[in-house]
Design goal:
By secondary structure, the protein is an all-alpha fold. The protein has one domain. The longest helix is centred in the N-terminal third of the chain and has 30 residues. The N and C termini lie far apart (about 35 Å).
Length: about 210
């Protein structure tokens, strides 16, 4: 896993030179749709370059990340809305969307409503699945988009802060790229704990 993260970040940092904001939009759209590509591997490295080398701007990175998240979330919403729950459950397993994940997202959405769309942008697992129950129950698309954009903007801003702090790491400043994987691993560990206490435990209690 460490080598996989390292290779991705290495490719990503090199690709940002030519890809810029559109690459961030594309990867964040993927992250918010079907592929579980962590946003923690997308925004912090870009912010790191912005802080240490002046490539792009932090505001631009946040906006690109939020736009990409909204695009991916929109795809999920309309796919679920047009297909309906039976088709999602029947074919979702072929694209890593299991019935268990869908049911968790549905319980989360039913319990927290529109605020759940905002909060989901700050949590792993639920983040890229919330569009499914929102589409199935035909949640107002305007409100869904608004809360998705607000939550995604907040989340990308937090990740930018992480990237800037990583840029202050002396080892990173010397070009020791592996250090950023430590920052990412730490962020994933914190997110995992947040998910466990605020989502997983809640879902288990709902089952009981």
């Amino acid at each position: 896993m460490h080598a996989l993260i390292y290779n991705f970040i290495d490719w990503y940092l090199r690709s940002l030179e030519s890809g810029g904001y559109p690459l961030i939009v594309l990867l964040m759209a993927v992250e918010s749709s079907l592929v579980p590509l962590p946003s923690e591997l997308i925004i912090p490295p870009a912010a790191y370059l912005a802080y240490t080398q002046g490539r792009m701007s932090l505001v631009g990175i946040v906006l690109a990340g939020a736009l990409g998240s909204w695009l991916g979330a929109t795809v999920m919403y309309w796919a679920a809305r047009l297909a309906g729950r039976p088709l999602v459950l029947r074919f979702g397993k072929f694209i890593l969307i299991t019935s268990d994940k869908v049911e968790k997202a549905e319980r989360w959405s039913a319990h927290f409503g529109n605020f759940g769309v905002f909060a989901s942008r700050l949590l792993p697992v639920v983040r890229h699945l919330i569009g499914i129950p929102a589409g199935i129950v035909r949640l107002h698309y305007g409100l869904y988009s608004l809360f998705t954009l607000i939550g995604s903007t907040v989340w990308c801003a937090v990740l930018c802060w992480v990237g800037v702090q990583a840029g202050k790491d002396e080892a990173l400043m010397r070009g020791e790229l592996h250090q950023i994987t430590l920052w990412v691993a730490g962020a994933l560990a914190v997110l995992g704990a947040i998910y466990y206490f605020f989502v997983h435990r809640h879902m288990q209690a709902e089952k009981k």
